[in-house]
From TrEMBL:
GO terms for biological process: molybdate ion transport. The lineage of its organism: Bacteria, Bacillati, Actinomycetota, Actinomycetes, Micrococcales. PANTHER family: MOLYBDATE-BINDING PERIPLASMIC PROTEIN, SULFATE-BINDING PROTEIN. Belongs to the bacterial solute-binding protein ModA family. This is Molybdenum ABC transporter, periplasmic molybdate-binding protein. The keyword Metal-binding applies.
Length: 281
């Protein structure tokens, strides 16, 4: 199983990860996608089993859950290789619009998915499979004693380093909705292209606080703490998933792609997501 985990700097990327990432980067640099790769074709193995490769483009916040789902899927279908690629939803959408290839797309909000649907790159209607909300994230021990969104703004105005996702990224759009609901504004020390980058800076002590999904706080364990804020409860990100259209997929057959989406939507898939802190829609 090869994991293509796109994060800040792509740390310790395997050859498989680089290979999958290059599929995306090629789409960004080329004027149009090349012919679909036959190596990714989905076929039926002996006894009608699934076989082939499925490239799953997913929001960075889904990494822990989708890595587990990919392993479960491969265990159930030994002839299948699942290749996840994680990044900010807006980045993935932009790459697809510029000609990159993939088989399944899962974004952290419906508006980003809509841009891909409107371009005719999704086969059928995407389905919302989970939801997420934001928390303030601080280093372990909460050294700046951040307890509210107002505290976050005060910290930023007094020289503290508060990081947010960029406004075009789902977590960034949600963060600004939370700030507006709290009646505050702040100048972020940096604006990151995905939620993992925000979390990484706080965990490394490069930032004093940020706004990330509660699932990311949970996945980080003891490195950070999450602070619930009232305004975040009403700002819910709904995550859709869909199979990409024939001209965008790396294979002509939808069997593997549909089966993976079905796993995500199934009771088993929902249990995996719930264990990571996601909430059913």
């Amino acid at each position: 199983m090869r994991r293509a985990s796109r994060g800040p700097g792509w740390p310790r990327a395997s050859r498989g990860a680089v290979a999958v990432a290059l599929v995306l980067l090629a789409g960004c640099s080329a004027p149009a996608p090349g012919p679909a790769s036959t190596s990714g074709a989905a076929t039926s193995g002996d006894g009608g089993g699934l076989a082939g490769t499925v490239t799953v483009l997913a929001a960075a916040s889904l990494q822990a859950a989708f890595d587990e789902l990919a392993a479960d899927f491969e265990a159930a279908h030994p002839g299948v290789d699942v290749r996840p690629v994680y990044d900010g939803s807006a980045t993935l959408a932009t790459q697809l619009l510029e000609g990159a290839r993939g088989d399944v797309l899962a974004t952290a909000d419906e508006s980003t998915m809509a841009t891909v649907v409107d371009a005719g790159l999704v086969d059928g209607a995407p389905e919302v499979f989970t939801t997420n909300t934001l928390q303030v994230v601080v280093p372990a021990g909460n050294p700046q004693d951040v307890r509210s969104v107002a505290d976050l703004a005060d910290l930023a105005s007094s020289g503290g380093h508060v990081v947010l996702c960029a406004p075009q990224v789902p977590c960034g759009a949600a963060a600004r909705t939370v700030l507006t609901a709290a009646g505050v504004s702040l100048a972020a020390a940096s604006e990151e292209q995905n939620v993992t980058a925000v979390l990484t800076k706080v965990a490394a002590g490069e930032a004093d606080a940020g706004l990330v999904y509660r699932t990311d706080v949970r996945a980080a364990g003891d490195e950070v703490e999450g602070v619930d804020v009232d305004e975040a409860a009403d700002v819910v990100n709904r995550y859709p998933i869909g199979v990409l259209a024939a001209g965008t997929r790396t294979s002509a057959d939808q069997a593997v792609e549909r089966a993976f989406v079905d796993l995500v939507l199934s009771d088993a898939g929902q249990r995996v997501l719930a264990a990571r802190g996601f909430v059913a829609p």
